[in-house]
């Protein structure tokens, strides 16, 4: 592994996202915890991941599953305590795994002491407060819960008041629009630095920053938001040069110049509102929005999509950010359907991982996707998981399936006390049986990670030449590796017309044949060849 700059190290890593509620339960109370993660480091090291990102684990009323922070300096009691986190960080480091925390800078819980104080004191400007005019609050503002008159601006749910980082454009008619250097915004920027320093000093390796583009309001082009992050990044580079700052922005071409080492392609964000990622994976059967339409994605068994939308967004992002930053390509996340979501057949998952792990982005594996855990439909709302009639995040947050036990090895607690029920499908996959089976998805993912780590051409710095963005997707990495991906249930052919590909040595493949003029891919086939 390169020991150079933080982005350099990131480029070698496969990132792994852990939802602490659901990953591993060390004390049998039915909710995952930090010690549980520590106990399962062996799985992550065996798999070969280089860094983990833990979803929020700070003290919280958990009305948005921890994205409603009430104390930025302490681990939520249900997950353990700060010493448990230090132990996790140390043991992970011993296995070559870095730990990143989720930082939620744009809002707190309405139970946070800052907000409770702000709701009593009209001179406090840590949050964005407006007065009623003719008996009405401005749009989107929520009535004050305290002695303070007027109302506050929420950032996501109403119980998540937006911290005040100011507005890029002030307006005397809207006095709640404070300048970015007013006292409240300044205090909040200082607090952010304190929070980051606190956890970095305990050994964490950086942060995934929630709703990173949301800080400065009414900020065309994100100019002021970018200044804020660039200033923090400058401080980070001086004091913690090894730390990584990853954005939840959904637009790497904007987030990296704004100060981040990397940004995720997401189901939302950017000019096309998340279309690039959705155009790869989204089946429209879960975590769906009406405005997203119903165009089939590329990983479609009926071969109705195109990889072109994603590939051109990727090319555009890389052309803008160049070397200094990374685009992160997730299999899924806690807000979006898992890769294994109906009607996608499990047979397609090997091709999906062969694509993700040979593509020049930083791969992020959502816990459980490595065994093909399924998005579980129709679960009840849990800690804010339901966002709309067709948008239920709970289905992506079910307990990690460690074994075949009734609670999938998640804990010894009665099933009704689990954070979420285990997938009731008796054919659900699990870690124990896939580890015992060398032909399992888990072994394939492990082999692909090992191949990627051993082969710089397959990482972010290797070149990418796309030969075909239909079926099969065909590209060359680093001038030496041919990759063929067929997400469809049909046998497909592509006339590559390249000399030198016939006789290429298979590195890892299933169902792909390469001839002098053409290549043939069986249903759900993938192939990686060296030539
Ligand atoms: O998500 C931000 C966000 O905008 C998404 O939830 C989006 O609305 C959804 O994916 C539909 O496209 C972040 C966190 O990831 C999420 O879990 C939190 O609920 C939210 O911020 C508030 O902190």
Structure, explained:
There is one protein chain. The protein has 14 helices and 21 strands. It is α/β, with parallel strands linked by helices. The protein has an 8-stranded parallel beta barrel with strand order 1-2-5-9-10-11-12-13, surrounded by 4 helices. Helix 8 (223-239) links the parallel strand 9 and strand 10. Helix 10 (275-281) packs across helix 11 (308-321). The longest helix is centred in the middle third of the chain and has 19 residues, at 183-201. The chain is globular, with a radius of gyration of 23 Å. The two termini are 25 Å apart. Mean pLDDT is 96; it is low at 1-8. The chain binds 1-O-alpha-D-glucopyranosyl-D-fructose. 1-O-alpha-D-glucopyranosyl-D-fructose binds at residues 64, 67, 104, 156, 210-211, 248, 267-268, 334-336.
Bound molecules: 1-O-alpha-D-glucopyranosyl-D-fructose
Q: Tell me what portion of residues adopts beta-strand conformation.
A: 15-25%
End-to-end distance, in Å? Answer: 25 Å
> Structural class from helices and strands?
alpha/beta
Question: Treating each run of at least 4 consecutive H or I residues as one helix, how many helices?
Answer: 14
The overall pLDDT average reads 96
